[in-house]
Amino acid sequence: MPNDIIFDRYQELSKLLKIYADKYYNDDAPIVSDAEYDRLYSELLEIEKVHPEFVTKESISQNIGGKASSRFTKIEHIYQMFSIQNAYSMSDVEEFYNRVIKTLDEQLRVDLSRQNLEMYAEPKIDGLSCSITYKNGNFVKAATRGNGLIGEDVTKNVLTIKEIPLKLNSSNPPELIEIRGEVYMTKLEFQKLNFDREKNHEELFANPRNAAAGSLRQLDASITATRNLKFFAYAIMGENIGFKTQKEISDTLHEWGFHTNELNTITNSITEIEVFYHNLENIRAKLEYDIDGAVYKVNNLEWQALLGASAKYPRHSIAHKFEAETAITYVKDIFLSIGRTGIITPVAVMDPVNIGGVEVAKATLHNRNEIIKKDIRIGDKVLIKRAGDVIPQVLKSFPENRDASSVPFAFPETCPYCGTKLEYDQTFIRCPNSFGCKSQIIERLAHFASRDALNIEGLAIKNIEFLVNHKIIESMTDIFKIQEKIDLKKLATFDGWGYLSVKNLIDSIERAKTTELSRFIFALGINQVGKTTAKLLAKKFKSFQNFLNTVTQKFAISNLSTIDGIGPLISSDIVNFFSNENNKNTAIELSKIVNIKDDIDTIQNSTFWSGKSVLLTGTLKTLGRSEAQEKLESLGAKILSSVSKKLDILIVGENPGSKLQKAQDLQIRIMYEDEMLSLMK
C-alpha cells in the first residue's frame, strides 16, 4: 500500500481516537465502546511499528489520558501518572510475563525461575485515577491524572469522599508522598443518581465510571458531596519510603486508613494468574462496583525499577481486559444517525437487555455495507456484544427465527433530518446539505466550539441544541452575533442557563475572536483535517488568505499534495470543502470576524540545521522523537518522512531498523544522538 494512503489512514485513526479519548477522559461522555476504541488503537500502533516517522509529540500513543480542563486549577504531579498497557488474551499476558522474566534475567544476570516471579494481582476498578498529596501525614491536595504530568485540582471534591483520611494513621509518616488510587461509584449509587436525573429531565450517565468522573469534576464540591463517591488506594509514591513489595504498599495503605481491595493477591505463576482472572470473571456481576479486568504488577519494587517505563506505560504492569460480553435480544427499530461530516450511521433500537450489570437498548450497525452483509432487519433476533461501554455492536442476526413477513431494511433516498437527496458510495451514505441539515449544523457547531478548535466554553452539545432549536444560532457566524439574536437577560431565564453561565459564554466568545490559523482551519470542520493537518497547512500558508487562494485555484489538489504529510485524498477533501459556496462564504465571513494570527517563522538566526532535510530513526535516550523533531524544526531543519536522496542527515537512536542501511547505501550523513544534542546548543 502506498505510504500516502497509509498516512491518510493513520491521520484518520488519530483524529477518531483523539475525539473518542476527549469524550471519554475530558467530557466523561464516551461515544464508542472500549472494544471499538481498542480495535482502532491497535491498528494505529501497528502502523506506527512500520512507520515510526509518523509519530509526533501529539500522537495519541505518546500521551496519557486526557488533559487538565481550564475550568480547574492545574496541579503538577510529583511523579508521573502512567497508563497501563492492555492485554486482551492469556497469550498477551503470557507474552508480557515472559518478557518480564527475560529482562530481569538479563538485568540480574541470573536464571530467574518462573515459579519465583511474584505478581501482585488486583481487580481493575472501572473508575477515575486520582492522586492525593500528604505532607507529614496530613492531606494537602488532590488531582486527577490529566495527561500524566499535570492534572486538575479536585482537592475540595476529594475532601467530600468519606473513605479518604485527612490524616494518615501513622506515628511516623513520610514527609511528602502521593497516594494513588481509583475514585469510583457503586452500582447502587449509580442507579439512584440516574433515577433522580431522569425525574429531573437531565441527561443520564452512561455507566458508573462516567458518573464518578462527572461527579468528581464538579466545580461545586457540594454536588460531589451528594454523590457518595468511594476510593480504592493502590500505590504510594515518594522518596526513601522503604517499601520492598507491592503487597507491603497495599498493607501499609490499609494501616494508614485507606480502603484497599480485599480481592488483591499474590500469584506465583502464569497458571495462578489465569485462575485469578477467571475467578474475577465469575464474580464481577455480584460485586458492588464495576471492574473491567485484572491488573498484574511485578511484586518486587526493586525489580519494578529495573524494568522501567516507556513514555506512556510502566513495563512492570499490565491490565488484562475482560472479553466483550454478549447477549441475545430483538431489534425493535432501526434509525439513522447523522454526524458533522454528513455521514449517516444506522443504529438498532432493541428490547433492553442486561449485559454485565448494564442495561443496553441501542447498538451501532456502522454503515450500509455492515447492515447488508449481516442482513439485520427490524424484528430480528440478534446477538450483541458489549465491551463495557456505550453503544454495543450487533454481531449477527438469526434468520431462521425471522418472521415470513420480514423485509430487508430500506435505506432512504433523502436525509431523514432535512429531506436532501442522499449521496451513496461503496461504503457510506452522506447528506451533502452541510449547512442546511439541522443535525449536521448542531454537530458542526459543537466541533467549531470544541477545545481544540475555537475553545468556546459554555457551548456544550445540549446548549447548542437549545440555541439551534430556538433559532438563535444557525451557523458558525451566528455564534459571534448571539447578543444581536436574543436578549441575554431573557436567555438567562431559560432552564439550564442562568446569569453566570450566559456571562461565561459571552466572555468565552469574545476570547475566541482571536485565534491561531491552525485552530481556525481545524474549526472549519473539513473532512480528514485534524489538528496535525491543520498545523501543516498553517505552517505552509502562514495566513488564511494564502490558504484560501490556493484551495480555490486550479490545480489546488496537486499543489496541496506537495506538502509533506498531506496526500491526495486529504487534498481532495479540502478542495471539495471550499468548492461548496456555503462553506467558502462562511469561512470568508468568519475570517472577517475572527482575528486570525498568522503563523510567523520562529527561526531568527541561521543555525547548523537551517535548510537541512532531517529524518530520525530508532529510540532516542534523551529526547522523545516528537520533542527532537520540534526542536530541529525550530532551528530551521525540515523533517522528512522517509529515506531518499533529498535527505541530508539521518539521526540514529537505538534499534534504528532498515532506514539506517538504506541511508548508508545512499551515502547520507549518519548522526548519533550526542552529536545532534551538541549541535542544538
Q: Structural class, judged by helices and strands?
A: alpha+beta
Main sheet summary = 5 strands, mixed
- Percentage of residues in helical conformation: 25-40%
Strand order of the largest sheet: 2-11-10-3-9
Total of helices: 26
Beta-strand share of residues? 15-25%
The low-pLDDT segments are 66-70
Radius of gyration over all CA atoms, rounded:
27 Å
Please give the alpha-carbon distance between the first and last residues. 40 Å
Q: What is the overall pLDDT average?
A: 84
Beta-strand segment tally? 24
**Global morphology:** globular
Report on the architecture of this protein.
This protein has about 675 residues and is an alpha+beta fold. Helices cover about 40% and strands about 20% of the residues. It contains 26 helices and 24 strands. Strands 2-11-10-3-9 form a 5-stranded mixed sheet. It has a 5-stranded antiparallel sheet with strand order 14-13-12-15-16, covered by helices on one side. Strand 15 (about 380-385) and strand 16 (about 395) form a beta hairpin. It starts with a helix and ends with a helix. The relative contact order is 0.09.
